[in-house]
Structures are given as C-alpha cells and as structure tokens.
Amino acid sequence: MSKLANSILQETTKLNNGVLMPKLGLGVWKTANEQAEESVAQAIKHGYRLIDTAKQYGNQAGVGAGIKRGILENGLNRKDLFITTKVFNGDQGYDSTLRNFEKTLQKLQLSYLDLYLIHWPVDNKYIDTWKALEKLYRDGRVRAIGISNFDIEHTKTLLAHSDITPAINQMEFNPINQEKDILSYMNLKGIQMEAWSPLGGGEALSNPTIKKLATKYNKSVAQIILRFDKQMGVITIPKSTHVERIVANSQINDFTLTTEDMATIKQLDKGQRSLWYKDFAWHAGHKPNAYVDAVQTWD
C-alpha cells in the first residue's frame, strides 16, 4: 500500500467549472527564492501537488525551479501538479494583466496555470482585471480563475460585471479569523474558499484551547488547526520551509475532530485580520505610512 494511502494529499475538491483541485498544498509567502525552490521540491517529493505563490512574494523564479526539480526528480508530469499564482496589484488592468501573465509563465517555467487569482480588489481596476482573466480562461491558458481577499461587497460587484463565476476566493482563514459571513456567502455562490495563513500565526499556534485539543488527540497544534480547516470545507496552503513540518502538515487524516471540539474552535473566532484593505497604499482609504504594495525582493 502506498505511504500516501488515505492521505489528504490525495484528496481533491471539484471546483464550479469541474476542475479538481487538491485540498491541501504548500504556500510560500515570505519565502526567499532559494528556500522556495527547496521547499517546493521537497513538498512535491513528499506527495504535495498544490503549490501556491504570487508575483508579490518575489519568489516565482524559485518556485518555478522547485517545480521543475520536483517533476524531474519524482518522475512526474506537469499535469500531475496544480499551480496557483496571482495578479500583482501593480499589474492590474486589462492589457497589463495579459502582458504580465506571459512574464509570470516565464518566471515559473510553465506553459499554463491551473489557477490564476486577482490578489486584491484594486480600486477601479479589478473588473478590467477579471475580464482579462476570463480571456485567459477561454483561451485555455489557465484551467480556473478566481479571486483573493474579496469581501462580500467586492464579490457582488464582480459577479454583476462578470461572465464567469470565480472558482476560488482565497482569504485569510484560521481559528482567530474565520470569516463566517464571507464563507457562508461563497458557499451560497458555489465559490470554493481557500485559506491563506491557515495556521493563524503565533496567536493561534499558542492558543491554550487548541493546545489542550492537541494533547487530547496526540497531535500538534498545527495539525489540529489544519484538521479544523478541512472539516470546515476550506482548502489550505500552510507555509513551511522545514521538511519535517511539511510532512507533518499533511498527516491529518488519521483523526476527526468531534462536533463538540469543532464548536469549541469556532468560539475562538475574533474576526482578527492581519492584513486588510486599509493596510494597502493602493486603496483610497489607506493611512499614512501604510504597507506599500510592492514585489518583495530576496537575496
């Protein structure tokens, strides 16, 4: 029997266009190019098939190198993987999105994408950006298109001006920030929720309630959180550059959280976002010295 038998890494969910997407993958935010190459290659070696990056992360070249290594070293084909990246805020707009899509493919050393997302709903541009994504989808350059960091209001506006319903909305989602209203709305519209920062950073990982559950199930805190996400029906992409954690993050199919324990975690929700519209300089409501949206650079 395969060592991946009964692994979440073999599980997929069917998106609203019929495409099958893995339920768990590797995220690479705040990962330098060299680290990204190694972590992606190692993740693929250990059974991961979903890899998520973005131009803003500044590591698409490293991710592309890791994908190439992972395919060659493990006897895989490109079609065995599910690769996601996102339209950079500074590239949004119809023509600019199409132009920079080609550059993204070059960085990743790919001929197509499995999923292309609008990273943030940039004021006065995200509708035109979506039209460009619809063209890329119709032209067969991407297998699915979606959005990221879209609240209900922005999603409603997009749906009113779109021909294609987004397949995904990638949101910050974790025990501290469960986005219950957005999750409910996406489920209503047939848009799959996907979690960035699924482990919730230090506050969730050090939460005494989750630690208690980890002891009860003889699992790590991260495994409890990822199991919670799975049972909530949310695709997850935890980030790690450590092989042992990459492997451990996938070992969540040998236990199930009880209804009572799920309810206990749901009560931890504070609606506490680490980043939102007000943090970005491209948004009209930004504050002085706000986080500047720029491609991160790494040695």
Automatic annotation (TrEMBL):
Top-level taxon of origin: Bacteria
Catalytic residues in the record: 57 (proton donor)
InterPro entries listed in its UniProt record: AKR, Aldo/ket_reductase_CS, NAD(P)_OxRdtase_dom_sf, NADP_OxRdtase_dom
Entry keyword NADP: yes
Record carries keyword NADP: yes
Pfam families, sorted: Aldo_ket_red
Single GO molecular function: oxidoreductase activity, acting on the CH-OH group of donors, NAD or NADP as acceptor
Site positions for Lowers pKa of active site Tyr: 86
Residues where substrate binds: 119
Coiled coil start-end: none
NADP-dependent oxidoreductase domain residues: 23-269
Gene3D superfamilies: NADP-dependent oxidoreductase domain
Keywords, alphabetical: NADP, Oxidoreductase
Protein family according to the UniProt entry: Belongs to the aldo/keto reductase family.
Protein name: Aldo-keto reductase
Organism: Loigolactobacillus rennini DSM 20253
Lineage: Bacteria, Bacillati, Bacillota, Bacilli, Lactobacillales
